[in-house]
Design goal:
Blueprint lengths: L3 E12 L13 E4 L5 H11 L6 H4 L5 H16 L6 E8 L2 E12 L2 E9 L8 H15 L4 E7 L3 H9 L3 E10 L4
Parallel strand pairs: 5-6
Antiparallel strand pairs: 1-6, 1-7, 2-3, 3-4, 4-5
């Protein structure tokens, strides 16, 4: 029929009513984003998702630069919708923003870690895991019973972190593309 498989998204879930992992002892500080940091968060998204292998980059007909810009735009929208059910967490060290996480409540029972970005130079320092644990705490503080997260099936590194934090696979979603021209 002319469709092609562009991506497989894997969802993981974790019960938040069981004990949550302790926060890591680290020089990295995790806190909610404050006014004026949205440009820095967008810059991290732009850097972290350059050439990221998602369904955008899997489609050869899409402009590579615009594929990258999608994540910057996604981060920008998240930064402009902070309220009781949306939050942007940032990781910083000595006033240098290194990473961000966007979290939201999907409904009163379920929180979601939506978009996480870590500067390439800061990867491997445990920042992603720290953002995940703070995201879990944020959801639990809003009385969520569970937290879900998703990524491309080929993103093994974050799936390993999720497994160590007690998340389990929930379901998979295919993304198909077709051009009608």
């Amino acid at each position: 029929m002319g469709f092609f498989l562009a991506d497989t998204l894997v969802y993981y879930a974790r019960d938040l009513k069981t004990s949550l992992p302790p926060k890591a002892d680290s020089a990295i500080i995790i806190r909610p984003m404050v006014n004026g940091e949205n440009v820095k968060v967008q810059a991290i998204a732009e850097e972290a998702f350059r050439d990221y292998k998602s369904h955008y980059h899997a489609d050869e007909r899409l402009d590579r630069k615009k594929c990258d810009e999608a994540y910057k735009d996604w981060a920008n929208k998240a930064c402009s919708t902070q309220d009781n059910i949306h939050e942007v967490l940032v990781a910083h060290q000595r006033d240098n923003l290194l990473a961000f996480a966007t979290v939201r409540m999907n409904d009163p029972q379920q929180g979601e870690g939506v978009l996480f970005g870590v500067r390439p130079a800061a990867q491997g320092l445990g920042i992603y895991k720290a953002l995940m644990t703070d995201g879990m705490d944020w959801c639990a503080d809003r009385y969520a019973r569970e937290m879900i997260v998703s990524t491309q099936i080929i993103n093994i590194a974050v799936q390993k972190v999720w497994g160590r934090l007690g998340f389990e696979p929930r379901n998979y979603i295919y993304t198909l593309h077709k051009w009608f021209d």
